[in-house]
Amino acid sequence: MARRPVSKPTSRKPAAPKRGAKAPKVSNRVSSMGEDTRNWISSNMDARSATILVMIVIGVLTIAPTVQNIFSYRQQISDMDQQVKSAKAAVAQMQVERQRWDDPVYVRSQARQRLYYVMPGEVSYLVMDANSVNTSDTTGTVGEMLSDKRNTSVISSSIRTTADNWVDDIVGSVIRAGIEQPAAEETPKTK
Questions:
Q1: Are residues 179 and 171 in contact, defined by beta-carbon separation less than 8 angstroms?
Q2: pLDDT tens per residue, range 44-76
Q3: Sequence-distant (≥ 6) Cβ neighbours of residue 23 within 8 angstroms
Q4: How far apart are CA 53 and CA 67, in angstroms?
Q5: CB within 8 A of 77, min separation 6: which ones?
Q6: How would you write 49-116 as a 3-class SS string?
Q7: Is residue 117 within 8 Å of 123, Cβ to Cβ?
Q8: In this structure, are residues 34 and 41 in contact, taking their beta carbons and an 8 Å threshold?
Q9: 75-94: buried (b, 16+ CB within 10 Å) or exposed (e) per residue?
Q10: pTM to 2 decimal places
Q11: Could you give the angle at the alpha carbon of 59 between the alpha carbons of 58 and 61, nearest 5°?
């Protein structure tokens, strides 16, 4: 069986009715049916819109915790990246510092600065209370100002020496504290 070709709609206007011919009338039934369909579609669209809106709200409520977790995990990852970067920078700085300690000149300067070591033949002077000294004072020497501050005019002329081995003195003090008994105090007698 051969198929008939489908004709495409044309944009031609329908032929005008001939003179004397009556135009066909659309029945009231068809027009009221079209109005009922429009009312049904508009009321149905409200139900469809409400259904779609409810589905969107349920979808958002379902997906929201997952999206929130994703954003919090991304924030944690960026925080950890910053910590890793700062740790790498600290490691790089420590490596530079370690390389400095391989230099004997740096070790010698740090021993002088931190431990007050001196080279053989040098004399080291240490000023006590140097932070409380007003260096802009021009009335006298710093030593004079410190002695006036302490209200002492007597300066010893003898040089004091310390014990050769201070570790033994500390250990001996600890041992004596554990062994010796405190002396009993005498109570005053009443007459």
A1: no
A2: 667 788 888 899 999 999 999 999 999 999 999
A3: 17
A4: 20
A5: none
A6: HHHHHHHHHHHHHHHHHHHHHHHHHHHHHHHHHHHHHHHHHHHHHHHHHHHHHCCHHHHHHHHHHHHC
A7: no
A8: no
A9: eeeeeeeeeeeeeeeeeeee
A10: 0.35
A11: 65
